[in-house]
Amino acid sequence: MGHVREALAYFKSERVYQQLFWQMRKKYESIGRIGGTVSTKLFSMEELRVISAFFGMPVEKLAAKSSISIKAFEQQLQATRFDGISLKELLEAYFGEELISKKQIKLNRQAEIQEFINELKEKHTILKFWFDYLAKRNADSRWILRLAETDKKVFEDWTCKLALAISALPVVAERLPMFAQRITADPHAFDLNENLGKLLLHVLAVHSSKMEDGAIVMPTSTEDVNELLQEYHIYRDDLLNFVTCAGFLAENADGSVHPVWQAATKTHTVLNMPLREITTLARIYPWQGKHVWLVENSGVCASILDQVPSIPIISTNGQFKLAALLMMDLMVKEGCTLHYAGDFDPEGLHMAQRLLDRYPQNVQLWRMDVENYRQSRPSKQLRVERLEKLHGITNENLLGIASEMIEVKKAAYQEALVDWMVADVKACV
């Protein structure tokens, strides 16, 4: 120990070693061993003179080098009266703490967090499935582990709330704020823009076991989020989430025909039916036949109804809301054919692909092909970033039109095809 104190007294007597040793420490933390070099450009000629004296070489020779070998410094240390002291031992004594590589620090941190997670798993066994998934450290979970590392006390509190949520999931429809109030006494606790709300979604995604290549598929769109919550009878908004439709009948759970839907059909009245009402129904079906017409644009829907007021038609009003998807789910159960017409733009094609993937046996594209794209006289120039979206089209029924749009670089809209669409509907009635 006295040998080490003697070495410290020597190296602390020259200020230049503070800078040199600091650089050596950084290099050790970076590569996890004694090695590498320190640039001579970091030191003045006077400082290099002190270092060159340690090496027993002319300062000009050291200055001519681009770097100082850390391994050579350790070897030279053994040629001095301080032999027997390793450079790592010297550096640790100099800085008064153990040298640890960044890799080891990371491993230590991971081990500490995993121990914390294991403690939570023992305490909240109902979340074992989730904690086991977090242990895999998939990309979708890393942000959660960072949260746990940042503030263990807060994360433990969140875990308690998540355990309560999973143990008391609703068995009948319940709005998200009411669910949050029941579980946490705070109606905004599970707001999806807050960490706890995001954690709840992750827990539900893992619980639902929707996996791809060993990792869960997290919902990204509003519709996907709504569908995941709906699997657990939780609804974000069941009033403003609605579907526009006409020409359908609906039945209650007891088998009785719903009087509002029946009256709307008799009077050719268009309904904006909220999710709140859709979820109470056992059946929805066309008032006649098995054909259902789906359009993306409300103006197109209204124009068709002007000429054929009795047809079963749905307007999605842009991206699919959960209300529309649940209504379509019920009609697919009835064996209906869904004829879908969307805009000739990247978003419209992705919506069509989503329906084809969701109902592969029941969806038919309605005037969504290359011929109709050309007939609609494309005029809206598409930006590069929107054209890139077309490369995500993989359904064989849409590849032709996607390729044509990439070449033409223009969008077209279904309003241009209304007359042909009306003719199609009349021919099918």
Instruction: Output the CATH topology of the largest domain.
Output: Dna Topoisomerase Vi A Subunit, Chain: A, domain 2
Can you identify the CATH class of the largest domain?
Answer: Alpha Beta
Strand content: 5-15%
Number of domains: 3
Rg value: 34 Å
Terminal Cα span: 99 Å
**Arithmetic mean of pLDDT:** 91
Task: Explain what you see.
This protein has 429 residues and is of the alpha/beta class. The protein has three domains: 2-100, no CATH class; 103-235, no CATH class; 242-428, 3-Layer(aba) Sandwich (Dna Topoisomerase Vi A Subunit, Chain: A, domain 2), CATH 3.40.1360. Helix content is 53%, strand content 12%. It has helices spanning 2-12, 16-31, 45-55, 59-64, 70-77, 87-95, 102-123, 128-134, 142-150, 152-167, 176-184, 195-207, 222-231, 259-266, 275-278, 298-307, 322-333, 346-358, 370-375, 384-389, 399-408, 418-428, and strands spanning 37-39, 67-69, 174-175, 211-212, 215-216, 234-235, 242-246, 248-251, 271-274, 283-286, 291-295, 313-315, 337-341, 363-365, 380-381, 410-411. The protein has a six-stranded mixed beta sheet, sandwiched between helices. α9 (142-150) packs across α10, α10 (152-167) crosses α12 and α16 packs across α22 (418-428). It is elongated.
List the helices and strands and how they pair.
Blueprint: H1 2-12, H2 16-31, E1 37-39, H3 45-55, H4 59-64, E2 67-69, H5 70-77, H6 87-95, H7 102-123, H8 128-134, H9 142-150, H10 152-167, E3 174-175, H11 176-184, H12 195-207, E4 211-212, E5 215-216, H13 222-231, E6 234-235, E7 242-246, E8 248-251, H14 259-266, E9 271-274, H15 275-278, E10 283-286, E11 291-295, H16 298-307, E12 313-315, H17 322-333, E13 337-341, H18 346-358, E14 363-365, H19 370-375, E15 380-381, H20 384-389, H21 399-408, E16 410-411, H22 418-428
Parallel strand pairs: 3-6, 11-12, 11-13, 13-14
Antiparallel strand pairs: 1-2, 4-5, 7-9, 7-12, 8-10, 15-16
